[in-house]
C-alpha cells in the first residue's frame, strides 16, 4: 500500500487536466465503473474518446504485481506506437507525481467505437461470434510483437530472462506470496513442485512475445458497431514478454476467438501441459484476488475446481 494514499480526484480538477492534455475546452468526463484502477472516459467533439486512469482509492488492496500497472501501461503504449503499424491508441500523458489531480495518472487514446460491455446485451449471437473472431485476430497481431527477453516490458537487463520457465515460476511465486500473506488455504508446495517438474516444457518457448495477461473482459474491448470488428483495447497495464497462450483469453476461449487467432494451444502433450500450467495460474490468481477484494464478484468455487483439475492433470503428466 502506498505511503500516501491517493485521494479521490475532484471533477473540476479532472476536467482541467483532461482539457489541458487533449487541448480542448469541451471535454466531457465520465467515471466508468468496474475497473480496478479508477477510470474516466474523456469525450471530445471529435467523435473519439480517451481514457484517464489513476490509482485506486487507499482502501482497495492491490496484489504485488498490480502496483506498477500505470507504469507498465505507459511503457507498453510507447512501445506499440513505435513498433506496430496501424496501432491507434497512444500515450497522451503520464504523470508520475500526485500533481495535479492528487494521484499518478495516465491518459490514453484515441478510441473509436463502443465499449463491448455497453452494447453486448443488444447484440445477436452472430454479432458476438464476429466480435470474438475479430478479437482473436487483434490478439494475434499483438502476439506478433517480439521482445529481447522474457519478463517485464521494461527491458533493463536485470529484469529480463532468456528462460520462460524461470519467468513463469517467478510470476506464480508472486501470487503465492500474496496468498500466504492472506493466510489462504492452498497447496503451495505442490504447485511449486509441479512448475519445477514441468520447467523443460515451459522452456520450449524460446521467443518472447507480447502478452496481455488480462484482456478478454467485455469492459476492455472497443468495437465498431457497424462492422462488429474490434478497434482496440482499453487496458495495456498487464503486458509482459512471454507466451501469448498464457493470456486470460485462452483460459476458456470461444470457438470464434480461436478461429480468429488461428490455432488452439492443444496440438500435443507439451502444449496441453503448458495450458494446464496457465489454467493453474489464472485459477490461483482468481482465488487470491477474491480474498483480497471480495466485492469483485469472481466465483471462488469455480476457480478452486479449475485449480484442482489443473493440479490433477499436471500430476498425471509428470514424466
UniProtKB/TrEMBL annotation:
Record protein name field: Aminoglycoside phosphotransferase domain-containing protein
Lineage, broadest ranks: Eukaryota, Fungi, Dikarya, Ascomycota, Pezizomycotina
Stored SUPFAM superfamilies: Protein kinase-like (PK-like)
Residue ranges constituting the Aminoglycoside phosphotransferase domain according to the UniProt record: 33-245
Domain of life: Eukaryota
InterPro entries in UniProt: AGP_Transferase (IPR051678), Aminoglycoside_PTrfase (IPR002575), Kinase-like_dom_sf (IPR011009)
One Pfam family of this chain: APH
Species of provenance: Friedmanniomyces endolithicus
